Amino acid sequence: MNIEIIRNTLYKAYLEAFYKFCSTLGGTTGDTMCPILEFEADRRAFIITINSFGTELSKEDRAK
């Protein structure tokens, strides 16, 4: 498996776990961090999509 796929899969899990943690804290932390984490996840998904064009990644690998 490509190291970039592993790295991005781990980072996705980190973002999801940290988002859940911040949302359970609520208050100012949740109000501030959740939109920032949403933006970071969207930004990374966009960059990964752009960088995967022209590669040999399968549809299943891209979904990770």
Quick structural gist:
With 64 residues, this protein is mainly alpha-helical.
Radius of gyration: 14 Å
- Based on CA inertia axes, which overall geometry fits? elongated
Coarse structural class? mainly alpha
Low-confidence stretches: none
Could you give the count of β-strands?
0
- Tally of separate helices: 3
> Separation of termini?
12 Å
Proportion of strand residues = under 5%
- Helix proportion range: over 70%
State mean pLDDT (0 to 100 scale): 86
What is the string of SSEs from the N terminus onward? Answer: HHH
Query: What characterizes the major β-sheet?
Result: none
Number of domains: 1
GO cellular component, one term: proton-transporting V-type ATPase, V0 domain
InterPro entries: ATPase_csu/dsu_sf, ATPase_V0-cplx_csu/dsu, ATPase_V0-cplx_dsu
GO molecular function, one term: proton-transporting ATPase activity, rotational mechanism
Pfam families: vATP-synt_AC39
Task: Chart the SSEs and their pairings.
Elements: H1 3-25, H2 27-52, H3 59-63
